[in-house]
Amino acid sequence: MVGLQPDIIVASTTAPTVALQRATRTIPIVFVSLVDPVASGIVARLNQPGGNITGFAAWEPTLAGKWLELLSEIAPGLKRATIMFHPDMTAASAFMPSFDTAARSLKVTPITATVHNEAEIETAITALGGEPGGGLVVMPDAWTIVHRAPIILAAARNNVPTVSYSSPFTKDGGLLSYGADSVDIFRRAASYVDRILRGEKPGDLPVQFPTKFEMAVNLKTATTLGLAIPPSILLRATEVIE
Questions:
Q1: 20-52: per-residue pLDDT in tens?
Q2: In 22, 47, 163, 180, which residue has its Cα 20 to 30 A from 125's Cα atom?
Q3: Which strand ranges, in their side-by-side order, compose the sheet holding 29-34?
Q4: Tens digit of pLDDT for each residue in 175-203?
Q5: What is the CATH number of domain 63-179+214-241?
Q6: DSSP code for 208
Q7: In this structure, are residues 216 and 238 in contact, taking their beta carbons and an 8 Å threshold?
Q8: What CATH number belongs to 2-59+181-212?
Q9: How far apart are CA 197 and CA 143, in angstroms?
């Protein structure tokens, strides 16, 4: 891609952005859907990134605590919560402090599950569902969205309520999702592409964070799990799947 010498590159998620950063320090890059661009070494500062890269992050690290709070709200018997991610795809270290803080506040035992394949997904969720009170938080990365089907199926087989970061999980049978509106993020990224093509430097454009969020809840899945969706969840939901 860099060899084609484009005027600008738009990169989605962390791994492609890091690869492009290694390949060029001159072609402007606008990223979308990153977790922590500073911790990932993509930009030096949020307010003035410097270099040839800027863009739009999709998730703030504090969302890990929010996901656990929502899971506890929708599944009041929660005693243990596993946070699942692929270690090579997620800036997990950025999320863990918020997750651990929320777990202590909610008196929930935090569990970490790093997964590399479908067999490890099955093992982690089966262990979580071995006794009542287990719940699953799916971390944001490209790997988990691609492998959402085995995650959803294993959670259903083991009666494990699951919260994720993206509505495709919920539409495909997951219980609940809460996260940034990805369409809105890409739409906003177009404004940076326009400004850079008109002569502004990427390093002078501050990294932006989401301003629009969406929550989806699957009532059919809730019924299967024997859960009654609280009115507080239904009132906040932007999409209810029946």
A1: 999 999 999 999 988 788 878 899 999 999 999
A2: 180
A3: 9-12, 29-34, 53-57
A4: 999 999 989 999 999 999 999 999 999 99
A5: 3.40.50.2300
A6: B
A7: yes
A8: 3.40.50.2300
A9: 32
